[in-house]
From TrEMBL:
Residues 208-346 form the Glycoside hydrolase family 20 catalytic domain. It comes from Tetranychus urticae (Two-spotted spider mite). The chain crosses the membrane at residues 21-38. Residues 84-104 have a biased composition (Polar residues). One of its GO terms (biological process) is carbohydrate metabolic process. Residues 45-68 have a biased composition (Basic and acidic residues). This is beta-N-acetylhexosaminidase. Pfam families: Glyco_hydro_20 (PF00728).
Length: 664
């Protein structure tokens, strides 16, 4: 040991005498260490920054103070590349974020932890050194993650909702679109039969005359299984019971007799009715893992004498819990409920009821700004009560009770909004099961039809591709859209005489300008998907109806010879009447041509009852208007002489205090 000390002392003094060499060694070593650590330091810094600005700040209760003194949870989603619109209120196109050199926030689908994919390090002192570090980084990444991860949140289940309470498609048509929705990204279907299910025995009065048969349902379920689609049936068990309560046999089970919407939860027979419905539905769906029991929009509750003295929240929770326990205990499946009634119940009351261990809420809204209609605190207390939840968006049936084709832009914005919210909220729940993309066919059982399934298919495919990818990239979405929907980019003259060109309103990449083509009429008119003739027909009908409305307004309101006043007093100028009727035959022909096109195309997907119903609602009223206009005009032209003025006043004007005491 003693001999080592002089040697160490000698080495130290020798190095000390060579200070420049020692200093150079230290500098080179330090420089190398700094360069090697640059990427890891950058990554750590960004992670800490993200920790304080995103999901961690939500869990720790950090808020952002607003100018008006209000406080709002921090929602920094810009890093996700999921912002739906820019300052000009246009859809953001995430293709601009596809640069491989741009870092962005990512989600690991396995453990749902956030990580950062930084841009490759490119130091200022030369490309050789940069290539050295980048090659090492690539080898490291290849070893740790051989498969590239999707940096966006993708909902595990992507269900397509089939609403069969209006315009039920033929089973053959439903089977034809299953492979299409599967290719676009769907992995399940939510089937709402209502009166199209072949209920029997005690429930034999419920099915419609054109309801599906058991064998037809078996064919549909078999096809869904072939395409790997999870099937979840839906049975309304509280609200939206019009299809049952409209019948005299079940009228006594209404909560409020004038309105056949809500079931009385206090009658024993009400639960017996629900049991029978659930048993028969589950018998036809033996492989189902979930059963949706509805329970939304229970507007009438606590009205009847039996319920009047019980608190409304208690009535609702007791009934839902009773039904949910029956579903879980007898059929061993998980009940799903719409969430809107739960939102209005105090969190403490929900916890006391222990409903969180029985059902999975499906949180629904169809707007662009999800948090505007479902406040942020709702998600927070839902996370304390329910381990698993679902989301629900829409691809049609959400923006107008009598529309014939959906606004694709508005529905896409809704689905993008849900992607943002699910990405932000996923860490707060055990799981967000997925999203159901709803497609309502009527707003309720007794309402008229809204958009048909075939005319909503382009909207559905755009939404599914976006949900499957976790974001909207216009060029990618419409490249796949063209493939899935069998679209042609060439221009041609369509079946109804208008130009079909998939690039109108878009660009050379096939992307679409939603401002000029919000319904995808121009984009999808050259596509040959199942029901595409119905989609094109809705455009021809819309154009014919607009022409009729413009024409009738022009001759009966804008001009002065075919007005209601002229017709009531049977006074007009025959010459001017003939002028007004000159275009009648042309406009009438457009309408009758649209009717023939509708009659032909609708038969591809629907039975005769639906064909007649759709034409009666969307074309027939305009035919009546045109026929009345022609009849009135011909009547006015019959006069050859006319009375002196003033004309006798209407006797009905007396109701408004307009009475002439003395008449000539």
């Amino acid at each position: 040991m003693r001999s080592i000390r002089p040697i160490c002392f000698y080495m130290f003094t020798s190095l000390w005498k060579r200070k420049p060499l020692l200093l150079a060694i230290v500098m080179v070593t330090s420089f190398t260490i700094i360069a090697l650590q640059y990427n890891s330091v950058t990554e750590s810094r960004d992670k800490r920054k993200d920790y304080h600005s995103s999901d961690h700040s939500l869990r720790n209760g950090r808020n952002v103070d607003l100018k008006d003194g209000a406080s709002l949870p921090r929602r920094n989603l810009s890093a996700l590349g999921l912002d739906r619109s820019n300052s000009n209120h246009k859809l953001n196109d995430d293709s601009q974020y596809n640069d491989k050199n741009s870092g962005r926030l990512s989600y690991d689908s396995a453990d749902k932890k956030q990580y950062i994919s930084p841009a490759p390090y490119e130091p200022l002192f030369g490309k050789k050194f940069a290539n050295f570090f980048n090659s090492n980084e690539k080898r490291k990444n290849n070893q740790e993650s051989p498969k590239e991860k999707n940096p966006y949140y993708v909902p595990p289940f992507r269900l397509v909702h089939f609403d069969l309470k209006g315009a039920p498609p033929k089973i053959s048509y439903l089977k034809s679109i299953l492979p299409i929705i599967k290719e676009a990204g769907a992995n399940g279907i939510l089937i709402e039969y209502e009166d199209m299910f072949p209920y029997e025995n005690y429930l034999s009065d419920i099915p419609a005359a054109n309801a599906y048969t058991k064998s037809e349902i078996a064919l549909l379920l078999s096809s869904a299984e072939e395409h790997g689609l999870e099937v979840i049936p839906l049975v309304p068990a509280f609200g939206h019971m019009e299809f049952v309560l409209k019948l005299s046999k079940f009228r006594h089970l209404r909560e409020y007799d004038p309105y056949p919407m809500a079931l009385c939860p206090s009658q024993n027979e009400s639960f017996v009715l629900i049991q029978h419905m659930i048993d028969q539905i589950m018998s036809a769906h033996p492989n189902a893992k979930w059963l949706h029991i509805g329970c939304d929009e229970v507007f009438q509750i606590g009205y009847c004498e039996r319920c009047r003295n019980t608190e409304r929240d208690t009535l609702f929770l007791d009934h839902v819990i009773k039904v949910a326990k029956y579903v879980k205990e007898k059929h061993r499946v998980i009940p799903i409920v719409w969430d809107d009634m739960l939102r209005n119940i105090l969190p403490e009351r929900l916890k006391e009821s222990k409903i969180g261990s029985l059902v999975e809420p499906m949180i629904w809204t169809y707007v662009k700004d999800i948090y505007r209609f479902i406040p942020y605190p709702t998600f927070s207390y839902f996370a304390d009560i329910f381990e698993n939840v679902w989301a629900a968006s829409a691809f049609k049936g959400a923006f107008g009770e009598t529309l014939t084709v959906p606004n694709v832009k508005m529905h896409l914005e809704n689905n993008q909004g849900w992607l943002e919210v699910m990405a932000e909220q996923q860490g707060h729940f055990k799981s967000i099961r997925g999203i159901a993309v709803t497609g309502w066919q009527r707003y309720d059982h007794l309402g008229t039809l809204c958009e048909l399934l075939p005319s909503g298919l382009p909207s559905l495919i755009v939404d599914l591709i976006t949900l499957r990818d976790g974001h909207y990239d216009s060029s990618k979405v419409f490249k796949e859209f063209d493939k899935i929907m069998h679209c042609s980019s060439s221009s041609s003259i369509g079946q109804y005489g208008y130009r079909e060109d998939s690039n109108i309103g878009g660009n050379s990449n096939g992307a679409v300008d939603f401002e000029s083509d919000p319904y995808l009429y121009n984009k999808a008119s050259s596509c040959m998907f199942p029901g595409s003739s119905i989609f094109r027909m809705t455009q021809s009908v819309a154009e014919a109806v607009k022409r009729v409305n413009d024409y009738i307004y022009d001759v009966t309101i804008h001009k002065a010879w075919l007005t209601d006043y002229n017709i009531r007093h049977n006074v007009s100028n025959p010459y001017r009447v003939d002028e007004g009727l000159e275009q009648h035959s042309n406009v009438h022909y457009l309408l009758t041509s649209a009717l023939r096109a509708a009659s032909s195309s609708l038969r591809e997907a629907f039975d005769e009852y639906t064909v007649n119903e759709w034409i009666e609602q969307n074309i027939y009223p305009y035919l009546l208007k045109m026929e009345k206009l022609l009849k009135d005009g011909e009547s006015l032209k019959k006069n050859k002489v006319w009375p002196r003025r003033p004309y006798p006043p209407l006797a009905d004007m007396k109701r408004f205090g307009l009475e002439i005491q003395k008449w000539f």
